[in-house]
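To fix ideas, we reproduce below a protein record of this kind.
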Amino acid sequence: MQAPEEFKLPKSLRMVIMGPPGSGKGTQAPRIAEQFCACHLATGDMLRAAVASGSALGKEAKQIMDAGGLVSDEIMVNMIKDNLASNAACRNGFILDGFPRTVVQAEKLDEMLDASRQSLDHAVELVIDDALLVARITGRLVHPASGRSYHRLFNPPQRPMTDDVTGEPLVQRSDDNEQTLAKRLATYHKQTAPVAAYYQRRGVLKQVDAAQSPASVWHTLLAIFAAKQ
């Protein structure tokens, strides 16, 4: 989805996107990347790519993960730095998704960007009421073979619990239940509130109402990016 002509957008974009599970990050981040021809650096994808590449950083990360440990902030920041230096998709900027999760990580990211004479344009937080998120997520149904998704309330299949295309059964992800989700949201708020406050102090935090339709959220994001011009 490209930007309407009413928006005069910058040529490049460097940003962090934050939001709880189900807030629409997975919808908006790839759209932003496509709009700006920038790279979408999601933490999990970045780690998997580094391990698959067999790079020194990838090998170090694999060793830690195989031992059940958490990859250090330094390794994550260096992976981001490597992508910015060598990933052609990052020429016009980046959308960081899943990092930073702590204030220390945010500071290390800023230090790395400062060293290369860059800085973040925006830290966007997709904000949505927990009760609405629970309704959104606990209603999700998936067709495992294709990845097609439905929703009991908002996008139901033509026949209950049945994929419209193949007629095969739909499933609910095991972590899409209310109890698990409540824990994930509590962890998210505890982690993210200090990071959002950090970016507020830096003057780059923009909060977006994620209860809107995806099209309205997209329109809001474009207005934020255009205002930076």
Remarks:
- The CA atoms of residues 17 and 124 lie 5 Å apart.
- The first strand starts at residue 13 and ends at 18.
